[in-house]
Amino acid sequence: MSKHILVSSLIGIAVVGGIAAGGLAVASASASAPATPALENSSVRYVAPSDGKTGSLTFTADVSDDSGIRGLKVIAWPASSKLDPTEAELRHVDSAKCERTSDETSRCTYALKVTKKEAAELDQGTWHISALATAKDGNTTLVPRAASFDITR
User: Fold this and answer.
1) Is there a contact between 20 and 39 (Cβ–Cβ < 8 Å)?
2) Which one, out of 34, 41, 81, 95, has a CA that is 20 to 30 A from the CA of 146?
3) Whole-prediction pTM value?
Protein backbone atom coordinates (compact mmCIF):
# COMPACT_ATOMS: atom_id res chain seq x y z
CA MET A 1 0.00 0.00 0.00
CA SER A 2 1.22 3.47 -0.66
CA LYS A 3 2.34 5.62 2.27
CA HIS A 4 -0.58 7.95 1.45
CA ILE A 5 -3.08 5.15 2.01
CA LEU A 6 -1.43 3.91 5.19
CA VAL A 7 -1.22 7.38 6.70
CA SER A 8 -4.78 8.17 5.68
CA SER A 9 -6.07 4.92 7.15
CA LEU A 10 -4.42 5.68 10.46
CA ILE A 11 -6.02 9.12 10.75
CA GLY A 12 -9.58 8.04 10.27
CA ILE A 13 -10.35 7.86 6.60
CA ALA A 14 -12.78 5.15 5.56
CA VAL A 15 -14.49 3.60 2.57
CA VAL A 16 -17.87 4.68 1.37
CA GLY A 17 -20.77 2.97 -0.29
CA GLY A 18 -24.51 2.65 -0.03
CA ILE A 19 -27.26 0.08 -0.24
CA ALA A 20 -30.63 0.97 -1.72
CA ALA A 21 -33.78 -0.35 -0.09
CA GLY A 22 -36.70 -1.70 -2.06
CA GLY A 23 -40.40 -1.81 -1.43
CA LEU A 24 -43.51 0.10 -2.30
CA ALA A 25 -43.25 2.58 0.57
CA VAL A 26 -39.63 3.33 -0.26
CA ALA A 27 -40.43 3.64 -3.96
CA SER A 28 -43.10 6.23 -3.32
CA ALA A 29 -40.89 8.14 -0.88
CA SER A 30 -38.00 8.16 -3.37
CA ALA A 31 -40.25 9.73 -5.99
CA SER A 32 -40.24 12.93 -3.94
CA ALA A 33 -36.63 12.71 -2.73
CA PRO A 34 -33.56 12.49 -4.96
CA ALA A 35 -32.10 9.00 -5.32
CA THR A 36 -28.71 8.30 -3.79
CA PRO A 37 -26.06 5.95 -5.19
CA ALA A 38 -26.27 2.28 -4.23
CA LEU A 39 -23.32 -0.07 -3.70
CA GLU A 40 -23.89 -3.78 -4.39
CA ASN A 41 -21.92 -6.99 -4.97
CA SER A 42 -18.88 -5.68 -3.11
CA SER A 43 -15.88 -7.92 -2.52
CA VAL A 44 -12.36 -7.47 -1.18
CA ARG A 45 -9.27 -9.64 -1.56
CA TYR A 46 -5.95 -9.20 0.21
CA VAL A 47 -2.96 -11.23 -0.97
CA ALA A 48 0.17 -10.94 1.16
CA PRO A 49 3.52 -10.60 -0.60
CA SER A 50 5.50 -13.84 -0.78
CA ASP A 51 8.62 -15.32 -2.39
CA GLY A 52 9.75 -11.96 -3.73
CA LYS A 53 6.34 -11.26 -5.28
CA THR A 54 4.37 -8.11 -4.53
CA GLY A 55 1.06 -8.57 -2.73
CA SER A 56 -2.20 -6.79 -3.48
CA LEU A 57 -5.44 -5.41 -2.12
CA THR A 58 -8.41 -5.35 -4.48
CA PHE A 59 -11.91 -4.02 -3.73
CA THR A 60 -14.67 -4.29 -6.34
CA ALA A 61 -18.29 -3.11 -6.24
CA ASP A 62 -21.18 -2.37 -8.58
CA VAL A 63 -22.32 1.21 -8.00
CA SER A 64 -25.58 2.54 -9.43
CA ASP A 65 -27.67 5.69 -9.50
CA ASP A 66 -30.43 6.88 -11.85
CA SER A 67 -28.17 9.74 -13.03
CA GLY A 68 -25.10 7.53 -13.51
CA ILE A 69 -21.92 7.27 -11.44
CA ARG A 70 -19.24 9.96 -11.21
CA GLY A 71 -16.88 7.99 -8.97
CA LEU A 72 -16.06 5.92 -5.90
CA LYS A 73 -13.53 6.90 -3.22
CA VAL A 74 -12.05 4.03 -1.20
CA ILE A 75 -9.84 3.57 1.87
CA ALA A 76 -8.74 0.57 3.95
CA TRP A 77 -8.30 0.93 7.71
CA PRO A 78 -7.61 -1.37 10.67
CA ALA A 79 -10.62 -2.19 12.84
CA SER A 80 -8.41 -1.88 15.92
CA SER A 81 -8.06 1.85 15.22
CA LYS A 82 -11.78 2.39 16.03
CA LEU A 83 -12.00 5.02 13.29
CA ASP A 84 -15.29 6.72 12.55
CA PRO A 85 -14.76 8.01 9.00
CA THR A 86 -16.81 10.86 7.63
CA GLU A 87 -17.92 11.78 4.13
CA ALA A 88 -15.73 14.89 4.25
CA GLU A 89 -12.64 12.79 5.02
CA LEU A 90 -13.36 10.35 2.22
CA ARG A 91 -13.44 13.11 -0.36
CA HIS A 92 -9.63 13.29 -0.01
CA VAL A 93 -8.68 9.62 -0.50
CA ASP A 94 -7.84 7.59 -3.59
CA SER A 95 -10.41 6.83 -6.27
CA ALA A 96 -11.42 3.46 -7.64
CA LYS A 97 -11.42 3.00 -11.40
CA CYS A 98 -15.02 2.79 -12.60
CA GLU A 99 -16.18 1.35 -15.90
CA ARG A 100 -19.74 1.98 -17.00
CA THR A 101 -21.78 -1.22 -17.46
CA SER A 102 -25.09 0.54 -18.19
CA ASP A 103 -26.53 4.08 -18.13
CA GLU A 104 -27.06 3.80 -14.37
CA THR A 105 -24.38 1.34 -13.17
CA SER A 106 -20.59 1.18 -13.08
CA ARG A 107 -18.25 -1.59 -11.92
CA CYS A 108 -15.63 0.09 -9.72
CA THR A 109 -12.30 -1.50 -8.78
CA TYR A 110 -9.72 -0.22 -6.33
CA ALA A 111 -6.38 -2.01 -6.52
CA LEU A 112 -3.14 -1.48 -4.59
CA LYS A 113 0.21 -3.22 -4.76
CA VAL A 114 1.62 -4.18 -1.34
CA THR A 115 5.36 -4.64 -0.86
CA LYS A 116 6.82 -6.96 1.75
CA LYS A 117 8.07 -3.93 3.72
CA GLU A 118 4.64 -2.27 3.65
CA ALA A 119 2.92 -5.52 4.67
CA ALA A 120 5.26 -5.88 7.65
CA GLU A 121 4.14 -2.44 8.89
CA LEU A 122 0.40 -3.17 8.65
CA ASP A 123 -1.62 -3.91 11.79
CA GLN A 124 -2.60 -7.56 12.03
CA GLY A 125 -6.27 -8.44 12.39
CA THR A 126 -9.45 -7.26 10.75
CA TRP A 127 -9.43 -4.31 8.35
CA HIS A 128 -12.44 -2.50 6.90
CA ILE A 129 -13.00 -0.91 3.53
CA SER A 130 -14.97 2.33 3.53
CA ALA A 131 -16.37 3.84 0.34
CA LEU A 132 -17.95 7.08 -0.83
CA ALA A 133 -20.01 6.84 -4.00
CA THR A 134 -20.81 9.99 -5.98
CA ALA A 135 -23.51 10.14 -8.64
CA LYS A 136 -23.37 12.37 -11.72
CA ASP A 137 -26.14 14.52 -10.18
CA GLY A 138 -23.90 15.13 -7.14
CA ASN A 139 -25.75 12.90 -4.66
CA THR A 140 -23.48 10.81 -2.44
CA THR A 141 -23.65 7.69 -0.30
CA LEU A 142 -21.14 6.82 2.43
CA VAL A 143 -20.63 3.17 3.41
CA PRO A 144 -18.29 3.10 6.43
CA ARG A 145 -17.88 -0.70 6.30
CA ALA A 146 -18.42 -1.78 2.72
CA ALA A 147 -16.23 -4.89 3.17
CA SER A 148 -13.77 -6.46 5.62
CA PHE A 149 -10.65 -8.62 5.37
CA ASP A 150 -7.98 -10.03 7.69
CA ILE A 151 -4.24 -9.55 7.73
CA THR A 152 -2.23 -12.29 9.36
CA ARG A 153 1.46 -13.18 9.35
Assistant:
1) no
2) 34
3) 0.79
